[in-house]
Amino acid sequence: MAFLEVRSLSKSIGPAKILHEINLTVERGEILGLIGPTGSGKTTLLRLINLLDEPSAGSILFDGRKVSGRQEKEALATRRKMAMVFQKPVMFKASVEENVSYGLRMRGRQKRHEKISMNAMVKEVLEIVGLSGYESRDANTLSGGEMQRIALARALILQPELLLLDEPTANLDPRSAASIDSLLRSLAGSRTAVILATHNMEQCRKLARRVAVLQAGRLAALGKSEEITMPW
Amino acid sequence: MRSIFISLSSAALAGIICIPVGGIIEFREFWGKRALINLIQTFYSLPTVTVGLLVFLLISRSGPLGFLNLLFSQSGMILGQAILVCPIMIGLTITALGSVGSQIRDTAKSLGATEMQIIITVIKEARVAVIAAVLLGFGRALSEVGVAMMIGGNIRGYTRVLTTSIALETSMGNLELSMALGIILISISLGINLLLNRFQGK
User: Fold this and answer.
1) Which residue in A228, B85, B139, B153 has its CB near the most CB atoms, within 10 A?
2) Contacts of A89 in chain B (CB under 8 A)
3) Which of residues 112-151 of A touch B (CB under 8 A)?
4) Domain covering A4-224: architecture
5) Which residue of B has its CA nearest to A73?
6) Which ipTM score applies to this complex?
7) Can you tell me whether residue A68 is helix, strand or coil?
8) Got the DSSP string for B23-58?
9) Which homologous superfamily is B2-160 in?
10) Least confident piece of the model among A215-224, B151-160, B191-200
11) Any residues with CB less than 8 A from the CB of A117 and at least 6 apart, and which?
């Protein structure tokens, strides 16, 4: 039984069919590369897996249990096991610390001793993304690359079982991108599964064991990263 | 001070009602939502005497709320002015919350926020514009005369406020006093505007 299974997943918006019968699986500790040109449906697929949108057809299974098409309460419980980093991350009008700890606070970590441990967690995760000492900075004054790393920290602090990354290094300089890549590599083999949507085939080859190729909303190929060649 | 107290109370009462109502209208999808928003926006320019008349009928002795004895009282004026400013406050709250991009909602949702937590997050993001809506409501309540006159009755020392005083003094020919009261009213309005600009400038 796969940790995450996507079965015949389709998504239409009005008359436009965005995704056509996608089938794929992800195991715990695996990094699955999701690659495809702009408009191929990568973001839509990640949003469906994150239960932000409802599929038009098909289903999503998490630990063998169907999680798509459920009541919001059940969807929320599943969503809280995942975290998603968007391609263009937005910051709440608050400090870096409040941004990074947002997910924990939404899970009810408000008591004093929890706040102390939360502060320590924020510090630790900011160190991981290379932004130590940024806690009190206004998150909206940061550069695009820094915001991207805060978004990643905001996801990592939740210790998700499934991490969904939509072009996480697109706005980063090569050095920052390399540090994020090394961080993602360290997740391989842990209990966290990662789906990494990217344009960058080289990044996919370095990080992902398997790659799924999306083209015009269809799964054009799925296999070991070294075996996949781009069809475009 | 009575003018400020009554208008502030009515703005606060309207704020308590209108911010959640605006949130519900903005966040929920329902049949006739667009028509409802159009209706609310039409009521922005609701004549104050019409509201005064409706509230008068509602709280007069023979009206459905007559047992509350609100007619010719400050509480009645607060209720009337709150009803008067509700459309503008709900409408501006909807606009304020709508201006917060869908990415903020998606980010909050993906980070595990419940529906209520998402609403609170969006209100926090739009706090400057929401506060501006409340301040504008306060300004409208402070400067209106119809509700204050019809519901309050312009009773000296009890329900007489700046606007009704100006109307009365003008009708009695005391133009200097009317002008002085008018300047005080304009000064208060100016103060509100300065406060509003300070919030919006942030």
Assistant:
1) B85
2) 107
3) none
4) 3-Layer(aba) Sandwich (3.40)
5) B114
6) 0.90
7) coil
8) HHHHH---TTHHHHHHHHHHGGG--HHHHHHHHHHH
9) MetI-like (1.10.3720.10)
10) B191-200
11) A109
